[in-house]
Structures are given as C-alpha cells and as structure tokens.
C-alpha cells in the first residue's frame, strides 16, 4: 500500500511558498489543500480561529563601542518595535538567556543564544531589559522566528532580533560594549484555519485516529521540509483511506499557525473538547522529504508503541529511530489533553526556519520512504480488531509536556491533562 512519492512531491512543490500563520498566503494554502480533498470526493471543513500575525519585519544591529560595525539581523516576529531611531544601550552577554543569567541587566540590551522561554522573557521584562539580540544556530543563517503570543500577552513587548551565529561570536570576542538595536514590524490580529476532514470508520466509528500535519510556514520561508512535506504526506494517506475506509474513523487535520505557538492545535482541542475522549491516537507528520536525512519517531505514548515502531522499523529497514520523547509540534496540546501520539519526522535537509528550507533537497523517493511507513503503521492501527495500544501517556512525558507548555508562556489549567 504505497503512497505516490511523485504526486506528493508535485503537491509539496505547489505548496512551497511563504505561508505565515494569519496571512493571505496561509489562507491560499488551506484552500489548495481543501480543493485537493474535494477532488478525491471528500468534504473538508475549514475551522477558523483568531491569531496574532505580523508583516514587514525589519531589524538591524549597530556596534557603537569600542568599535563600530553594522550587523545584519532579522526581527523576532511579534516582539514589537523600537523607536524608529532604535535603542542605544550597553550590551550584556547572558549565555542561554535563561533566568539564572538574567542579573544586572537594567537598561541593557542582552545577547543570548535563546529567548530563555517564558520565565526568561518575564524576568527580562522585570529586570528592565530594553531589547534582546538572539544568536542563531551555527551554520543556520538568519532565523525568521516569532515569539509566542502567550508571552507578550502576559508580560508585554520586548523588541528582539536574531543575528547569525558567526556575528554573535564576533560581538563577544571583540568585546562589544554598546550597541544600537533597531526593530520594526506591523503586528495585527488575523484569522487562521485548520482544514479538517473525516473518513468514518466502518465498524468502530466512535474511535477516532487523528492524522495531523501543520501546513503554515515561518515568515518569508518556503517551508518545504517544514511542513509542506508533512502536509503532502498526509494528503496521500487521505487518498488511501478515502478509497479504503478503515474500521476506525480517520480524522485528518492540516493545522494552521503552528509556527506561531501551536495555535491551530490549541484551537482544535478547544473546539473539539467534547470529542477528545474518542481520540484514541494521533499520528503527526512534521518535517519530511529530505534526500539526505534520518527517519525519526517521537513517541508520546505507551512503551508498547515504542516497541512496535522499533520492530516495524526493522521490518522496513529504514533505520527508524523511535524514542520516548516530546516533540515541539501539534502533538503537545493533544498530549496535554491525554491523547497519545507519535510524530514522524525525516530531518537532515533544510535547515528549517531559514531561507534554506526549500524543495531543492527533497525527492519523491524519500518522501515516500517515510510516507509508506506512516501509512502502513496507521492502516494497521485503524484496522486492528482490538485497538493495539492503551490510551496512556507515561508520567515523564506528561511532565515534559506540561513544562513545554509553561515554557511557551501558556497558563496551565489545573487538572486539564488528567481527563
Ligand atoms: Zn514544523
């Protein structure tokens, strides 16, 4: 029961254009997916939700003392804007940007390798940081990433910009003590949407297996690996199940606005709260297609799933690395509500979240390599006489899931994950 790698690649290429959550381009991508589903006789629903989005981001860093230099930068989306002339302030390197390093920073611009999560964000605001410069990963160029709206809604704006790893190293080595940071962008509320379609089960329609992939990208990046590839992969799966319905109900969800804080999956669990008990499992595909790469499965479910995938991976001989781990994606809100999941990813190309995430290092063969495996795994589960896996998530994964959500800045509703 193979997927059609060539057809998936065609669709992936069509979908490989910038499609930031809340943008017109994201809406166009949702309509393209819906149109494709209609062409195979399915009736998708577009489930809308409100998001924060942004446009026209601009950033620049100028070194003022003890030497002068201009450094190319990219604005951290949704982090606000400085006054037009920028902010001039002492520069302070604070390592990872996590709370323990945020001391004696009042009136400073901080330099760090990460945004320090919600706690780092909150402490930076409290301690009087004026702006932040974030250092990208080695070899990854400039990131086009945004801050989660949970953070600025709680703690306020903090204008921030990304610079390249090499430039960050240079600032520290040369001992830059004073910089000017300029950040500008237009921020606005907008609508995003999940594309949802059901293929009812033939004998256990009350048991729902959710098949998910986010279809949005980060700002001004094609997002071919992340995640036009996953979107095209689950579209192939929808074609299969449309022609061969399973015992259980398959619900396909192309999530919007994942890159701005999993907004599509948070909207989904709210909208479908009454139904979540029927969700027996989630299969998520996030990042795929890379010619050079490795196949991975992050299991947020019982070790029985882990063992099964390990055995099945060996059957297929695709070097599948399955491990018990949370995955930074739409599986998080579902896991928080008790829905076990596995996220499949084929990484290696890209790097994701940079301009290099294009279709040029993806091919049909490697799209189908993971696609065939995920389809077969899902077919087995969906057609099992007795559902093979308990609806359980190990406590360590539950704890990491809660920590992930707190780190993103969302306030946990107590006991919500105990349902
Ligand atoms: Zn992704």
Describe the model.
The relative contact order is 0.17. The radius of gyration is 22 Å and the shape is elongated. It is of the alpha/beta class and 419 residues long. The protein has helices spanning 5-15, 24-39, 117-126, 149-155, 165-173, 224-243, 263-271, 303-316, 331-336, 364-383, 395-408, and strands at 45-65, 69-75, 87-93, 109-112, 131-135, 160-163, 178-199, 204-214, 248-255, 279-285, 294-300, 321-324, 341-347. A 7-stranded mixed barrel has the order 1-2-6-5-4-3-7, surrounded by 4 helices. The mean pLDDT is 96. It is 32% helix and 27% strand. The chain has 2 domains: 5-52 and 190-418, Zn peptidases (Aminopeptidase, 3-Layer(aba) Sandwich); 57-186, 3-Layer(bba) Sandwich (Glucose Oxidase, domain 1). It binds zinc ion. Residues 214, 226-227, 258, 286-287, 329 line the site of zinc ion (ZN).
Describe the strand arrangement of the main beta sheet, using strand numbers. 1-2-6-5-4-3-7
The total domain count is 2
Distance between the termini: 36 Å
CATH H-level superfamily title of the largest domain? Zn peptidases
Element string (H = helix, E = strand): HHEEEEHEHEHEEHEHEEHEHEHH
Radius of gyration: 22 Å
Helix content: 25-40%
Multimerization state: single chain
Backbone shape: elongated
CATH topology label of the largest domain: Aminopeptidase
Bound molecules: zinc ion
Low-pLDDT residue spans:
none
- Shape-level CATH architecture of the largest domain: 3-Layer(aba) Sandwich
Q: Give the total of beta strands.
A: 13
Tell me the major beta sheet: 7 strands, mixed, barrel
């Amino acid at each position: 029961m193979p997927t059609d790698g060539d057809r998936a690649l065609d669709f992936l290429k069509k979908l490989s254009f910038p499609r930031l959550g809340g943008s017109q381009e994201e809406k166009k991508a949702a309509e393209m997916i819906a149109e494709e589903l209609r062409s195979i006789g399915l009736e998708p629903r577009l489930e809308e939700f409100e998001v924060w989005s942004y446009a026209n981001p601009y950033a620049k860093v100028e070194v003022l003392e003890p030497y002068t230099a201009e450094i190319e930068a990219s604005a951290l989306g949704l982090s606000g804007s400085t006054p037009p002339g920028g902010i001039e302030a002492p520069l302070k390197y604070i390592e990872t940007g996590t709370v323990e390093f945020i001391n004696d920073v009042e009136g400073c611009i901080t330099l760090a390798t990460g945004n320090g999560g919600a706690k780092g964000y909150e402490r930076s605001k409290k301690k009087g940081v004026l702006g932040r410069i974030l250092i990208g990963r080695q070899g990854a160029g400039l990131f086009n990433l945004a801050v989660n709206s949970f953070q600025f809604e709680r703690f306020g704006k903090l204008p921030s910009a990304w610079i390249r790893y090499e430039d960050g190293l240079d600032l520290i080595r040369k001992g830059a003590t004073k910089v000017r940071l300029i950040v500008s962008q237009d921020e606005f509320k907008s609508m995003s949407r999940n594309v949802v379609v059901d293929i009812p089960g033939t004998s256990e329609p009350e048991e729902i297996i959710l098949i998910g992939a986010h279809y949005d990208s980060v700002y001004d990046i094609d997002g071919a690996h992340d995640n036009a590839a996953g979107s095209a992969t689950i579209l192939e799966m929808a074609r299969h199940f449309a022609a061969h319905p399973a015992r259980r109900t398959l619900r396909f969800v192309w999530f919007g606005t994942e890159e701005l804080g999993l907004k599509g999956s948070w909207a989904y669990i709210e909208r479908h709260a009454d139904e979540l008990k029927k969700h027996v499992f989630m299969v998520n595909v996030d990042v795929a297609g890379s010619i050079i790469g490795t196949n991975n499965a992050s299991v947020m479910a019982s070790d029985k799933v882990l063992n099964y995938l390990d055995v099945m991976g060996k059957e297929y001989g695709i070097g599948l690395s399955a491990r018990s781990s949370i995955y930074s994606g739409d599986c998080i809100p579902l896991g928080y509500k008790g829905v076990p999941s596995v996220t499949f990813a084929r990484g290696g190309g890209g790097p994701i979240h940079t301009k290099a995430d294009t279709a040029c290092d993806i091919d049909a063969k490697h799209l189908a390599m993971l696609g065939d495996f995920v389809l077969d795994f899902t077919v087995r589960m969906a057609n099992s006489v007795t559902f093979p896996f308990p609806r359980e998530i190990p406590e360590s994964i539950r704890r990491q899931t809660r920590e992930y959500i707190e780190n993103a800045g969302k306030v946990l509703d107590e006991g919500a994950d105990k349902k």
